[in-house]
Amino acid sequence: MPARHLRTSSTPARLAVALLGTAAVFATALIVPWGGSTPEAAPDPTRERTAEPPTAPPGPARVNTYTCTPYSGIARPNPVANLLKDTYTWGTTPPTKVGDGTGNIDWRANPAQNPSWYMWLHSLRWLGQGINAAAKGDQAALQRVSAIARDWVTDNPYSWKSDVGAYESTMHRTNVLICLRQAVLSGLHVGKLPLTYAWLDKTLLDHARFLQENWSGDWNHGTDESLALFGIGCTLGRADLKQLAAGRLTSAIKTSIDTQGSTNEQSTAYAQFNYALWGRAIDVLQQCGVDPGTTIMARRRELAKWLALATNSLGNLPQLGDSEVVRTVPVTGTVLEYAGTLGKQGIRPTQRVGIFDAGYIFGRTGWGETRAFTQESTYSIRFGPAQKLHGHNDHTSVTYTSHGRDILVDGGHAGYKMDGWRSWAKSQFAHNELVVQSASGHPETKLVRSAIKPTSEFYELNDSPGAGIDRTRGVLMLKDPDLMVVLDRGTSEADENYSTLWHLPADQKVVVSGNDWVVARKPGDTVKTTLLQIPFQQATTPIEVVSGQQDPIQGWHYRTIDQRLAAPVVKFNRTGRSASILSVIAPTRSNAVVSYTTTQRGSQLLVNLKVDGVTTTISISENGTMQRIK
């Protein structure tokens, strides 16, 4: 069994953070038709993605059988009638006529200057409904999708590496071309590709050559590329291509998903995407007579546990890294079934808190044992290796759900267009953390210590987000009453502007009372959130609330890349060479009374909290240790 740092509710913990190797991300000089920068990776995998079924038990080995991959929902808004008009639709961009009506497409079109729209145009996945119809004998559909695909081949001769849309979509387009080849055979009721379609096998070999020479490495891009390359080898009977692709998959799994189930993507949405992707890898290898081995299956089982622990009380994955609001897929027969069905089906997990070396803490008050699943409180905390791939500058940041709703949210995922919105969404300012105005680094963050008890958990994290700047965050999570206590401390060699940011959902209306009290509530809701700024080693300063600000950008929430909503951010500020900011976040019924007093006991500050009739006391030592003493 692999070594783990996953703690049950009764196990105290001290975590040693393992440094992960830096994954190489390709970088080339490209001609970008939309006038921006190259996208960092394929656009969001969660967009209209159909969840893949659990991997079936191994059946009899078959040779040269390749299952055509689904079109990830991209084909759905592109019916055959639109294809016959050379009309393409993606995202919120209106249907766009991209050809002359005969299948002659303008492959440089990009009316919204959106890199995702452009990349998916070149992927050819939008032809999916037409290819499915062609496979059933629809000759008009076959003629049109064949014309469009051949037009792409004609207008984008090998190598198409100078066009980022064509480059990025190679793996997706490869699968579409294989699907088209299968549709030709079944739609024409032939066992051998007609000579008039010889171009199809030639372009598949060109795609194989491209994939051989331009492998992206051990992350989702490289996995998709390896599967596409394997698909060509399987389809055309090329054992050398199959062997190369299978070898890459065997190597990549050890980096893509670690022994604890964390992926190297630094994104919860991409973690779920990788679960499906590696399930497909098992299926693809088996269907074409290659034994996938045991490592892929073992790592996916650990990833399933990771995803279950990450699932919040609303049934969603917290928005960490490039992640939209994504529901956890309830895969039957795995631990995800219970988490994804909000406790309605499957076996209830026993692990309440998980700490992962890759930089994640997921915790909850329970799994619905004594209260409804949705009424539990859940949280995430980020730390670990420096930012890469789909990660954001979110170290030390937290998310929080309680009382059946989001309490603290992440700024979200702004898409892949390289503009100010994406820069903000990835920056420290879009997360619930202590930010330092001049800091621009994306550092490694260490989990210094942790203590897990039946009704409380304490964590302390430390990093250096800029030259001469030190940042320490202590987080104390309580159950009954459910609340979060956070102590942020910072030091710097020069005067700095420090702010502890609390990002609230867009529907919250905020009322500030003095320097220590904020109440946020959706009008008419039965739940409110009280945020307290309590003096600790420093006087408090006036509380600031920002919402919908554009210069500089602040106070927004992206639930999806197409849905940007103004959302309040509460700011507790300090200026100088040090900062000490003590925050309490208390979600309660809307008519509940919340109050506090403080007393000094030696070197310890005692915070006496009364929350909805329940009294609790927190002690805070000079060194930042926080614990529940009542």
TrEMBL record:
**Keyword vocabulary terms for this entry:** Lyase, Periplasm, Signal
Tell me a Gene Ontology molecular-function term this record carries: lyase activity
Question: Quick check: keyword Lyase in the entry?
Answer: yes
Highest taxon of the lineage = Bacteria
GO cellular component, as recorded: periplasmic space
Main subcellular localisation: periplasm
Where would I find the Heparinase II/III-like C-terminal domain in this sequence?
A: 383-546
Q: Where in the cell is it found?
A: Periplasm
Q: Where is this region: Disordered?
A: 36-64
Q: This protein is called what?
A: Heparinase II/III-like C-terminal domain-containing protein
